[in-house]
Write a structure and sequence with these properties.
By secondary structure, the chain is an alpha+beta fold. It has four helices and six strands, in the order βααββαβαββ. It is globular, with a radius of gyration of 13 Å. The model has no long low-confidence stretch (mean pLDDT 91). Residues 11-138 form the MPN domain.
Length: 138
């Protein structure tokens, strides 16, 4: 489900990505805020947001993610790169083994498609976030 299109907003840091995704999460109703959300931010060649897509709305502890769904809109819209992002309803943005594994799968799929995966940002409580790129996991 497309959340936003053609915002004109440029993202140049994981902090900016976390801010954008946190703002979206806080517009959700209170019930859905306690579920894991997985978003894809599609970017043009200048890292300007072309779209933000909610790929999966999961449960309290996980969201079902498949590269096919993650890249579907990116291929249709012809983006240059993507940033993946999701929240941890627990509030702790520490990446799990599953988070690292899906990031590796997405990077591999992106390499095949010619769409770079620039980062995977996990947001938690109190403006905390983790960038898998900054942790050397991408």
């Amino acid at each position: 489900m497309i959340i936003k299109e053609h915002t004109g907003e440029k993202v140049s840091s994981s902090c900016e990505v976390a801010r954008v995704l946190s703002a979206i999460l806080h517009t959700d109703n209170e019930v859905d805020r306690d579920k894991e959300h997985f978003w894809v931010i599609g970017l043009n060649t200048k890292n300007v947001i072309k779209f933000i897509d909610l790929v999966s709305l999961g449960t309290l502890t996980n969201a079902l993610i498949h590269p096919r769904e993650v890249f579907r809109l990116s291929v249709m819209k012809g983006v240059c790169s993507i940033i993946a992002g999701h929240n941890h309803p627990s509030g702790d943005p520490t990446p799990s083994k599953d988070d690292v594994a899906i990031t590796e799968r997405l990077k591999h799929a992106g390499d095949i498609l010619g769409i770079s995966v620039l980062d995977h940002v996990i947001i938690g409580d109190n403006n905390q976030f983790t960038s898998l790129k900054e942790r050397g996991l991408l």
